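user: can you give me the structure for this one chain? tokens are fine.
assistant: on it. calling the predictor now.
[tool input]
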Amino acid sequence: MIKFSLLMCLYEKENPLFLKQCLDSINTQTVLPDEVIIVKDGPLTDDLEEVLKGFNFSGDVNIVSLPDNMTLGPARAAGVEAARHEWVAIMDSDDICKQDRFEKQLGMIEKNPELGLIGGQISEFTGDLVNSQAARVVPLSQNDIVSFAKFRNPFNHMTVMFKREAVLNAGNYRLFPLFEDYDLWTRMINNGTICANHADTLVDARIGSSMYKRRRGLSYIKSEWRMQKQLKALGVVGFAGFIRNVALRIPVRLLPGGVLAGVYGGFARKRS
């Protein structure tokens, strides 16, 4: 069986209850990680520390403590550097993995050893799992992933597994606010990494109004502009594609959060 590490980053504003539910979903996997890497992105609250103390995992737990909050890109980069196994899986601290997530993904790898980056589908929910909102559906094959990447992120980041070496060869995660994962995937694809997504839902992803607040306003527009310039620099899009993406994507970042949520629901997601 392929050995792999599971990487998760935490910072002080995480919800302790959501973190516990997340960690519980790791322990119920049909195939367990060989190592769980938890990056503390700066000091945590006492409540979060208590949840971590109660995490009874049978394999190795590798705690990486950063003295200050470095934000998600540098924190994940530190976790990748610390990983002890060839494959690394990503998980967000407020999401819940389906019990067979890793079993299904390892099955993909065994069938196609050339893969270097894989993901899957997600079901989004608010509050409790019964409050399912929508599914974010991403393409399955290499060609469709490459085409999709010209317009938007072709992976649900909380479902991703990748070869550690492929990530390091592409430059690892870096400081790229709000687009850390999309930035990395495009560099990996540009570097020749073979990709795929599983057709099944692998993670129940928690969403809320705060998610849409983060995806609007001047700071997001600046990050969106930087990401579109990155796509052009890598040759993912040409000049016409760059202009099209900027014209379509940047104006919606000025919409109120409620309106933006409706745009996302209709454009990138499938209702349950």
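assistant: here you go. The longest strand covers residues 194-206. The chain has one domain: 4-208.
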